[in-house]
Structure formats: structure tokens, C-alpha cells
Amino acid sequence: MFDSLREPWLRGIAFNPAAPSDVLVRLLDRAAGEAGLLMCEGRDLPDAVIDAALRHPDYVIRRALARNRYVDPARLAPLATDPSGVVRGWLAAGPRHYPRWVRPLPDDILVTLLTSQDGGEDGKVTEIEIIGELESSRQIPLSFYRSMAGREAPELRIRATWRWQSLTPAQRAGLLDDPDPAVREAAQDRNWELDPERVEARLPSFGSRNRFVFGTCALSPALVEQCFADGTVHPLTWNRHTPVYAVARLARHPEAEVRALVAARPDVGPDLVAELREDPDEGVRMCARLHSFPRTWAEYDVIRRVIGHGPDCTCPITEPFTESNTEPAVGPSPDWFAACAASEQPVLRRVAASWPGLSAELVATLAQDDDEEVRIRLACHHPLAPPHLLLDVFVTRPAHRPHLLALPAFPRTGRSHLVDHPDPEVRALAAADPALPDPPVEDPDASVRRAAATNPSLSREALEALLAAPSTAEGAAANPALPVPRMHALLDHCLNGTATRPGAVQR
């Protein structure tokens, strides 16, 4: 009779924030099916559950844990040497569903994955495939890339050459004179990026990656002309090696977007800046006005990430820039970001709002900024953004909801005033507020009813009734007010087939 409730009960208990370790460990049983896998991947877990999952004989449990974005990544270190290459590959690939921000892996895990000589005992993937997953996962921090040039393992120094232009001149010189011949060969090979003739010779082999070449490498006059002839000039606008004469041509390009990106470049001369400040397009004029604000190429790179993105931009949130005492600098200084926060130019305040190192005082000021995009960027990027701002952005900008809900500062209470909102997703948020005296368990929308069933303010009798209803069973099983003995009783029924009375009140 209650077989249809089995899966909702299991999923609900798996994500019940009050479920203790002995309850959650039971969900690692194969009989729990998909619920156990969803739990291992999709929520924070007590240490005892993590330990049990790490030791679990079934690789699918360890594989699910490998992609957990909520557990301290240091706890996942044993998975880097897991017997299954599939588990290693999932750890290297990082969280699924492409979250905007990905937490970097610790150095010891990165070294293990990048220097492994095999792809696991099961032979399903190779070490090269695992490294490929890691390289595209955004789990390698900039600091690790820059440290690889000095690492003991030659294979890591070889990988350091892959980001040749992000290395300091001293690091590049050291790799070109490395004692290991394989490292020297790799360094000499990568040095092509700064040689226009070698760039031109290699271009045909890059195929669809031409955008990378045109946007980062030193270009010959022939390649610059090819870009103009093909209409593929956008990468030239941010390439710091673009010749001065080409920059002038781009500043007069018929596309306003091209002119705007050029107008913000730090190497545009005063005469050209004056011309761009009179451009017919307001966006171009705005970028040209930024030239009253001194900046470096590192600062330009930060500004370029903001120009033209709009309030619903959900681009990946990359590692924050930090100050560096080396050349080229890793990024702008804290003082520069503080000056951006006080600027009259909205673009620069958006830049400041995107930097998580901004002081609490400046955060409080930008949280009240007249520019909506400043407030949105602050909510999405800064750990000190006030909870009320996070809630406001959640209500007004649906594109940012998945990211905001994952933030630790997102308010868990104070949402009851939204219970009559026309958007069901907003009503669902309000329905789970513990301060709500009468959770809307009869709302016409199923997601709202399910959220209301998680509200710990419900009486024990009401909770039991919701456990027995298919549309609210999952929410009720996830309710933190559900007694632990009742959780075990539900699991007995779901995993062992032991009889239970869903309508019985457990005291």
C-alpha cells in the first residue's frame, strides 16, 4: 500500500538536516538505491558518514562522494588514489551541474592526480583522461599553477609551461634552463606564444581554438589582417600584444561592442581616448571615461569581465584576484578595489562588488548602491553581503537563485512575508520559514506543498498526515522536527520491508 511512498521517504531522510549519522549511514545500503547516491553527492555529511562512504565496497558510493561540493575537499583525499579510476575521474571532474563557483582542491590531491602513473585498477579510464577532467574543472587554483614551475616533480614543471604567459620572466627563464631535458623541451616549445612568426606557423593546427591564439598570443601583421578580413576581431580587443595600429583601427570599428572593449584598454593613447569619449554609443563613451582611472593590464582584465554582462549574468565565478609582488601581477591591489567602490562610474563599482576581499564598511555602502547590477554582483560574490540583499536578489532575479541558495549567508528565516508571492519558487522559499505560523500545505503548487512539509513548526499530527500523502511525503521526511526513532522506523520499512504505520504518531 505504501510502496509509492518509499522513494520520497528515502530522499527526504537523505536530506533531513537533523538526521544523525546512524540514520544517514543506513542510506549507504544498496537497498536505498538512488537516495544514498544523492545524499553522498548533494549535502554536507557528518564525519562518520564520510568515513563510511570512503570505505564503502561499492564504487558507486565513493564515486558519488567524489563530486560532493559541500564536504571539506581535504576529507576526499583518499579518493585521489582510489582503486577505481572512475572514482578518481569524478573527483577530478568536480561538482556536477556546473555551479558558478567551484571550491579548489588542496595541493596534495592535485599533486596526486597530476603525477599518477595509472588510471586505476579497473582500467576504465586513463591517467591522461583524469588529468583532462581536472584541467577543465576549475578546481586548480591560480596559486598552484604558479607554484608548479618550482615543484620537484618534472611532470608538474612541464605542466607549468602550459600557462606560459602567466609565469614571471624569472620562472620562464628557469624552465628554459631546467636540468630536466623534457622540461626544457616543453618550455622551448611553449615559448612560441611570444614569437609572431611561430604563432603564424602553428595557427592551422589549432582549428576551433583560433580564438585562444588571437586573444593571447603575439601576432604577425598577416594574422592581424586575417582577423579584420574574416570579421573575427573580438579577441584582438583584449589581446595585450595587439599592435598599436590595429588598436586604432578597432577603435573605429562599426560594432559598438568592439569599440567599447578597446576604449577600456590601458594602452589606448590620449588622442584616441578623447575621440572615443565623443563616440555616438553611450557604452563606448562610458568605457572611455574609465581612463581617468589609472590601471594595469591586470586591472583591465577585471574590468573586462564586467563590461556588457548585464544583471542576469551567470558566468562562472573564478578565483578572486589577489595582490602579488611579482611581475606580471596576479591581480589588482586591495586599494585599487577600494577606489573602484568609491568611483562615480557604475562599472567600477560593479568591479568592486565582484571582489570578495572588500571591507565590511564598503560592502555596507555598495549594498545600498543606486545601480542594481552593483547590488546583484555584491550579493553573488561577497561573503559579507547582507542577508536581506541576498533575499531581494533571489526574489527579483530568478537567474541567480541556484547560486544564492547555496551561499552560507542566505537567510533561512525572515521570509514569511513572501508566502503569497505570485512566483511559486518564492512561495516555496517562504513556506519553509520556521516563523511561519501556518505553512501552506494546501498550496496549488506541488513544490510549495513539499517545502511547507519541511517546516519544523508543523505539529506532530500534521507531519504524520503529510508523510502519508504522496505530494508531501518527501518534504515531511526531510522535516528536522521528525523524531529520530520515526526516521529509523521509516527506513526499516523502506530497506527491510518491516511493517510501519505511516499514520501512526510516534511520541
What brief labels describe this structure?
0% strand; disordered C terminus; 50% helix; 507 residues
Description:
The protein is mainly α and 507 residues long. It has 32 helices and no strands.
Distance between the termini: 24 Å
Radius of gyration: 27 Å
- Roughly what percent helix? 40-55%
Derived structural class? mainly alpha
Tell me about the biggest sheet?
A: none
Number of strands: 0
Write down the overall mean pLDDT: 92
Oligomer: single chain
> What is the helix tally?
32
Strand content: under 5%
Spans of at least 5 consecutive residues whose pLDDT stays below 50 are 322-328, 502-507
How would you sum up the global shape? globular
Please give the structural blueprint.
Blueprint: H1 6-14, H2 21-26, H3 34-42, H4 47-54, H5 59-66, H6 85-93, H7 107-115, H8 127-135, H9 142-147, H10 154-160, H11 169-176, H12 181-190, H13 196-202, H14 210-216, H15 221-230, H16 234-238, H17 244-250, H18 256-263, H19 270-276, H20 282-289, H21 297-304, H22 334-341, H23 346-353, H24 360-366, H25 372-381, H26 387-396, H27 401-405, H28 424-431, H29 446-452, H30 460-467, H31 473-477, H32 484-496
Helix pairs in contact: 1-3, 1-32, 3-5, 5-6, 6-8, 10-12, 18-20, 22-23, 23-25, 25-26, 28-29
Write a short abstract of this structure.
50% of the residues lie in helices and 0% in strands.
